Amino acid sequence: MQKDQLFTRRRMLLAGVAALGSAGTAGAVLASDGEETVRAAAAPAPAPAPGPQARPALGPSAFRLQPLTGYGPPRTPPRKLKVRDEPILRISGSGRRMVLTFDDGPHPDYTPDILDTLARHRVRAMFFVCGECVVEHRELLARMAEEGHVVGNHTWTHPLLTSLGRREIRSEMERTSDIIEDTYGDRPQWFRAPYGAWNRAAFQLGAELGMEPMAWTVDTTDWMEPGTDTIVDQVESGAAPGVVVLSHDAGGDRSQTVRAIREWLPYLLDSGYHLTVPRRRV
């Protein structure tokens, strides 16, 4: 499915996504100062061990030399998780903490600018990537690993999961986890369904693959390309403790997103918000 077709379908699903986003009783992520610890509120997990967000990423030459499958050490089996009924929508804990997330990338025209802005302000974020985009732009995932960002799974081709069979959903998720591990250095521990369209199979397969489901609290609406000022207003007016912000670094013209983050990110920091990320589970 082409990205412009996905964008059109995304508009049609806005109402459903908004309804999901209002379900404030879903799980929450618990964060703390410094190296943030994360666990699902509804299913406490052991405290994560200290360490970086990912193992050292492969260098550019290794991308060309190492096959995605076949020879090499066996993959580390993911730790199976409790199957949820709803995605995580927000973080909990004391202080003014928020999580910034970016979907659909990586994209060579927009992702580097967003990474530059995050680096300038020493902020880490989450990137929910599509496997088909990673194939052509592995160096951007390597940079995300090096700069401490968390990479999540957003399927291979960004399909509407509710229209697929269980085997197709597994393929979309598993292929993406494999290429993330080969490129980023660690398997993803977070999954976001395209369009925010979840079903039982997505929750079950995500848990089998060691991924917690994450949605969002505040939609910047950048996928509609509403104008830079509108995107800035969406973030600034929606900012609050525990919020998870949804933005996009691919899937269309994201130049408005690039310009907007240069405005709203320093605003959040000046307002006393701490932008956090989940820490890798053991």
TrEMBL record:
Superkingdom in the source lineage: Bacteria
Keyword Cell inner membrane: no
Signal peptide as annotated in the record: 1-28
Region (Disordered): 40-80
Hydrolase as UniProt keyword: yes
Membrane spanning residue stretches: none
Protein's name according to its UniProt entry: Polysaccharide deacetylase family protein
Taxonomic lineage of the native organism: Bacteria, Bacillati, Actinomycetota, Actinomycetes, Kitasatosporales
PANTHER family xrefs: CHITIN DEACETYLASE 1-RELATED, GLYCOSYL TRANSFERASE-RELATED
Keywords: Hydrolase, Metal-binding, Signal
Domain NodB homology: 96-276
Organism: Streptomyces achromogenes
